What does this fold into?
Amino acid sequence: MLNLLKQARNALALMSPEEVRTRADQPVTIGLVASSERGYERLEDFLAGDGTRESIFRAGSADAPGHVDLVICQDGFEVPPGAYALDPEDPRGTLADIARHREDVALALARRYPVFRRAVVDRAIQAVACENALFAIATALPDVVPNLIELPWALGEWASDTAFLTTNQLRMAFYIAAACGRPVGFAEQKMDLLSIGAGAFGWRALARELAGKIPFGGGLIPKGAIAFAGTYLVGKGLQRFHEGRPALGRRERKEIYRDGLEHGRSVAREALQQRRGDGGLRLGPPAKLV
It folds into this structure.
């Protein structure tokens, strides 16, 4: 459990907007493998559209570098180890796999190529919502609270989970803006950050109240679920804003929050089952958003 809390601290150490900008602006190259000219054209048109293609290379071309960051193959082509097959007519599964397994280049891909943005942002929202749900559960467990005093940073910075959950949402806000090609930083995103801060205490106060009124243990799942749902709703709202779509309406917010609660309950139940099974609660490595 102490390791879980240390992992949480390490995740927040990566919250710097400068670090997010650096990761988003890093060079990224894509290598294409196809069986025909038409196959190459379909992949290029899907990935870049009318945008830049200077970092996209065909296999065997004279200007192709000796190493590329990501290899994408025509669907139906034999896929080399570490590469991904992509069908431009049904790309969602492949894009989701790249966002999940290639966190080292996912942010740079999303910033340069809009086709990656939805999958990369969805992945970030899910990852941070899970972190917040598990942290909320961990800080509510009686055998964890004594361990907090073993961490010098805990007393001054994370006396309650509110600070951690809110800060983790700010990290998510920087990441989403970078993925969507928008300016990143405290000044550049002041409206995003103010909206997160304004909502920081409402749904978390509800979580604490709900957890406190249920017999011990029974309130852990609702607390984790609400932490997940609140973070999920914030992420979806930011995603909607940076995609240039109208703000979420009241009904949409309720639906997204309800979906987040259901997913959050599943995350919380699984975490508590693991704890009962092996005596500990595993968070796993923090999402490598940056």
The first strand starts at residue 30 and ends at 33. Residues 143-159 have pLDDT under 50 and may be disordered.
